[in-house]
Every structure is written in C-alpha cells, then in structure tokens.
Write a structure and sequence with these properties.
Blueprint: E1 4-5, E2 13-16, E3 25-28, E4 31-34, E5 44-46, E6 55-58, E7 61-66, E8 75-76, E9 81-82, E10 107-112, E11 118-119, E12 123-128, H1 134-143, E13 154-157, H2 168-182, E14 187-194, H3 202-209, E15 217-221, H4 228-243, E16 249-252, E17 257-262, H5 273-286, E18 290-293, H6 303-307, H7 313-332, H8 343-347, H9 353-360, E19 369-373, E20 383-387, H10 393-402, E21 407-412, E22 424-428, H11 431-436, E23 443-444, H12 454-469, H13 475-478
Parallel strand pairs: 12-13, 12-14, 14-15, 17-18, 17-21, 18-20, 19-20, 21-22, 22-23
Antiparallel strand pairs: 1-2, 2-5, 3-4, 5-8, 6-7, 7-9, 10-11, 10-16
C-alpha cells in the first residue's frame, strides 16, 4: 500500500497518504530519503533542499515560495512557505484545447418536460419572493407532504432572507436566482409565494421567468388572500395534479447538466476526489453532456490552466474578465484577495491558495472551456462551462442549480451535511471520512490513494451518477435536507 505520492515528475514535494513518523526512510526516485519530522496525512514533505525564495512545486506548478530554507525530508506547510500570487494580472492566450473523442451513448431514467429540458426529480417547490413569507412557505410545505406520490418525490420550500431592502446588483441577483429555480426542470410544479409590497414582488419577477406554463407555475400574493395557507394548499393540489402526469423515461446522458464544487478540502482532494470528478466531467462531455465549474476565488493561481483551454479567444477574454472581476470585488471591499485557504484546509494539508486552486481545478478534467456564465445566468452551450460565483458552499451550489444543473457534485476532505436545491452528491477524498461520516458521504474516492485506478473509479462513479439521475436518493435527500443561499454583495436598506 502506498504511503505517499509524488504527483508530477517535476514536483519538489510529495504528499503523505497516511501519517509518517520522523526518521522514516522512504524510497523515491531511486534514492532513500529520511523524513526529518512527523508528516500528517495529506501534508507535504520536501524531496530536495529548497532555498529561501525558491518556488515550491506541486502538480508540476508553483504552489508558493519558500519563506525560509527548507531541507530535504522536512515538513512543508504554512510555517515555512507562503503564497507567490499578486493582485490583478495581465494574461495572454496560449491555447491548448485537446478535443475529447466521442464515446458510446449512455442513458438514465428522467422526466422530459414540454420545453425539451429534463428533470432528474419530479418535485413540488415553494419559492418565496421575499423573506417575510418564509414561515408561510414552510407551513405550506409541511401540509403539502400529503401530496407525495410514487412520481411526486418531494415537496420543498426554499426560504431566504432577501427580495426586499436590496439595491442594484443585489436585487438583480435575487431575481435571477429565483427565476432560475422557478424554471428548473427538477420541479414538476412550483408555487411562487409573494407578500405583495416587496421590491421583488410577483409582477416584477414575472418578466425574469420568460414564457412559463401556468399549469406548472402558480402564484399567490399573501396580502391579497384571506387565508394564505388554505389558498396555498389549493394551488399545491393543482400543481400536484399536473406534476403527477410525468413519468420517468429513458433519456440520453447528453441531456445531463452537472455542477462541480468542492468544500472542506484537504491535501488529498486534488489527488483523489477532484481528479475523479474531472474524469467524470470528460466522460460526460464526450457523450454530449454539460458540466459547470464555479467558485472563482478558488481558481486564483490556476486560472491560466483554464484560460489556455478556452475554445476560442472570445471565451478566453470572458474568462479573464471572470477572474479579474472577482479580484476587483475583493479590492472594493478592502479585503485581501488571497485570504485563503481556510483553517480546515490548512489542517488537512493545504498551505496556500495556489495549492488549493491547483487541486480545485482538477475537477475541470481536460475538456475545452466552451462557455462563461454570469451569476444567475442559465447554461446554453453543451460542454465545460465556468460560472461566476464565490467559494461559499451554499451560495455556489445554489448558483449551479439556478444555472441549470440537475445534480451538484461536491468533493470534500472533511465532510459536510448541507444540501442544495438539487441532489448534491458528496465525494470523500479519503476512506477514513467515508467510514466515519457514512450518513453524509455518497461516494468514496479514497481507494484512488490505495489501489484503484482513475479510469476504473471514474467509470464506477459515472454509473453511480446515472443511478442518482434515475432516482437513487443521495444522503442529504434521505435526511430530508434542502438548502439555498443567494450571493449578498451590497447595501441592505
């Protein structure tokens, strides 16, 4: 069994796959190296002497610079290295766009909607336009559980604190996200619940929806109702009758749109879970499907990898804008652009933002970048897309759902129970987490650090995702969890 891994031939560090004791002798690159201190699992040790100020190389790329001279065999972490990143950068387009060869068609059992889009769930959703009616939405959700049937799989309300007392981009973001969820194909019926006096009231929100089917989307203004709970239930019964007409049928995997996100990453995330998702992404795209990568601040330090894989120069320019706009967002709020990774990331072995980002972008696989989406924008182009959203788990996952993702893949080294508006698959980076938190983790990528191959594990995972798309519940669904969050940037009135 492997106890450490050197990821790339040019690396100056290796990663411990299990705790390694000081004075352990390891064989690497045809020579013996004695460790000078204890190396925790997921953490790095130096393979050669690294002078102060020299680059520390992992994944074949710099992940920072040595803050002091580091001896071969020493533990390499935040105490002796630091980020090498600057602020706004100039970029040049150096295209490297390998085409993915088409692969055999695969199928799942989905719900085909009249507009041609496909849901992987047939649920009834209650979407408040404003936080003032959250409690009403949740009360209707509770009563409407009586409407569950074989092909009506869940009733879910999505409370949030916004929809009023917002200005500018904040108000627009709320409206776009709510519209994206109302239009989502995983919902067979949607009750839009308004108060009546809010800024983002139902009449204001309707133009953001575009054309909609009045059998599928119903509206209720609470201030205009004598009994909003009774009226809400009447509308839910009508929605259930319509949603009940849909049944699962065979659908090509080309219709799948899958969001990709990570959180609570550790030193193994970029070695096991993220590469598994990247291989999955390539496989889905090779079948005509679509994936969406987000959390822009965790692209910083690895952004040129994505930029050079842009399918054309226009997409490259949009990707540059995506990255620099987020850096300017940090600067407008007088915050350090590279105030990352988190305490949990560091405990797990990630030392700098470059270290985190180079691991994070493994989720993108090798496909060309074909689209760049604004926050709240719906995906249009099959293939790999980039989406503007922050790293926050709930905010980013909600943005992926609003962009059209029917499923979100969430890799983690530390675990989390959260959900999103769509099935949220948790992939563990290590087997210890999968064993400890089996009530959270859906798929274990730990075997990739043991004896599994990336090709074999990604094929197994692809089959698993098709099962989820066909109705297999994920752990957060079994627990009854569903969450949403909207990006808050500006003034609250």
């Amino acid at each position: 069994m492997k106890t450490f891994i050197k990821i790339h031939p040019d690396d100056l560090v290796a990663v411990a796959l299990e705790p390694l004791a000081a004075y352990t002798a390891v064989q690497i690159d045809g020579r013996e190296l004695v460790l000078l201190e204890d190396i925790p699992r997921g953490h790095k040790f130096a393979l050669a002497d690294i002078p102060q100020g020299a680059s520390v190389v992992k994944y074949g790329a710099p992940i920072g610079v040595a803050a002091q001279a580091i001896a071969a065999g020493a533990w390499v972490h935040t105490h002796n290295m630091k980020t090498g990143l600057g602020d706004l950068l100039e970029y040049s387009y150096e295209p490297v766009c390998p085409e993915l060869a088409p692969t055999d068609e695969r199928f799942f059992q989905g719900y085909v909607r009249p507009d041609g889009r496909v849901g992987v769930r047939n649920e009834l959703w209650i979407i408040p336009t404003v936080g003032c009616v959250n409690n009403v939405a949740q009360a209707i959700e509770k009563r409407a559980q009586a409407l569950l049937a074989d092909n009506i799989e869940n009733v879910a309300a999505f409370p949030h604190p916004y929809g009023c007392s917002q200005m500018g981009d904040d108000q627009e973001n709320t409206r776009k996200i709510l519209a994206g969820l109302i239009n989502h194909p995983n919902a067979g019926g949607v009750l839009v619940l308004g108060l009546g006096c809010e800024n983002s009231n139902i009449d204001v929100l309707k133009p953001y929806l575009g054309e909609y089917d009045p059998r599928r989307v119903k509206f209720l203004v609470c201030q205009e109702s004598e009994d909003e709970l009774a009226d809400g239930m009447k509308l839910m019964e009508e929605l259930a009758e319509y949603a009940g007409t849909f049944c699962r049928e065979p659908v090509s995997a080309a219709k799948l749109i899958v969001g990709m996100k990570c959180g609570g990453s550790d030193g193994l995330s970029g070695i096991t879970a993220n590469p598994t998702v990247g291989a999955f992404s390539d496989l889905l795209i090779s079948k005509g499907g679509t994936t969406i990568l987000t959390e822009v601040p965790e692209m910083f330090g690895a952004e040129t990898i994505l930029m050079n894989r842009c399918a054309d120069e226009e997409t490259f320019r949009k990707t540059v804008g995506l990255v620099n706009d987020f850096k300017l967002y940090f600067k407008r709020h007088d915050q350090t652009i590279y105030e990352n990774p988190s305490p949990g990331n560091k405990k797990g072995g990630i030392s700098t933002l470059e270290d985190k980002s180079l691991g994070c972008t493994q989720k993108s696989g090798s496909a060309p970048v074909v689209g760049v989406l604004d926050y709240g924008e719906r995906v249009k182009t099959p293939g790999l897309n980039l989406l503007s959203a922050p790293g926050n788990d709930l905010v980013a996952s909600t943005a992926l759902a609003a962009a059209g993702a029917q499923i979100v893949l969430f890799t983690t080294g530390r675990g989390t129970p959260f959900a999103s508006p769509v099935p949220t698959v948790k992939l563990s980076s290590n087997s210890a987490l999968a064993k400890k938190k089996s009530n959270w983790i859906d798929f274990n990528c730990g075997p990739l650090a043991e004896d599994a191959t990336l090709e074999g594990l990604s094929e197994e995972f692809f089959t698993y995702v098709l099962e989820v798309a066909s109705g297999r519940p994920v752990k957060s669904e079994e627990a009854g969890f569903h969450d949403m969050a909207i990006f808050k940037q500006g003034v609250t009135l």
